[in-house]
Amino acid sequence: MVELAWQIMMGVGLAASAGLRAFLPLFVVGVAGRLELVPLSAPFAWMSTTPALIVFGVAVCIEVVGDKFPLVDHFLDTAGTLVRPVAGALVAAAPITSLDPLTGLVVGVILGGAAAGGVHAAKATLRVVSSTGTGGLANPLISASEDAASLSGSVVSLFLPVVTFTLAVAVLCLFVFYLLAHRRSGAGDADLARGAGR
């Protein structure tokens, strides 16, 4: 049971990192599997093969470099709405070896997809605020910090998953709190506007 909890926390931490960069955690997991640092569930053994690592490596370069350019970063964020939850589901399910492959996949899809999708949504919201407030000038700096967070989060998830799991849950809770507060504020503004119109 402890081993399963450890693997689930590892998967959620990796998935949260995939919410920032889709292919970086996939590459890290593939390398870790290749070096036998982390056992991969049988259906995901392909992630540690040479062709997969080449594809992941090229995709990482394209994603990291492309995210530094205006318009390209917005395109990547739009595409990431679909790609990042899928990547999150894959990296969350891959290290779950304590369950049968089908159950592990279901757990990975539910938890990993949700974690990656939530972090991606929070990141996209921050990008909108940054673009509005700085005219997009701060976006490359934010992008570089996202690269570092995704890489470090992926590596730490392999060895200290409790840390990244806790951070992922905290980020998602803060984002939900922000959305609720923003919605409540918007409803209050609308009520004020209706009252002023009377």
Please outline the helices and strands.
Blueprint: H1 2-18, H2 23-34, H3 50-66, H4 72-93, H5 101-134, H6 139-159, H7 161-197
Helix pairs in contact: 1-2, 1-4, 1-5, 1-6, 1-7, 2-3, 2-4, 2-6, 4-5, 5-7, 6-7
Describe the structure.
The protein is mainly α. The chain has one domain (2-197). It contains 7 helices and no strands. The mean pLDDT is 89.
What are the main properties of this structure?
single chain; 198 residues; mainly alpha; 0% strand
Number of domains: 1
Structural class: mainly alpha
Beta content comes to under 5%
Main sheet makeup:
none
Range of helix content: over 70%
Mean of residue pLDDT values: 89
Order of helices and strands: HHHHHHH
How many individual β-strands?
0
Distance between the termini: 62 Å
Tally of helical runs: 7
Quick summary of this structure?
With 198 residues, this protein is an all-alpha fold.
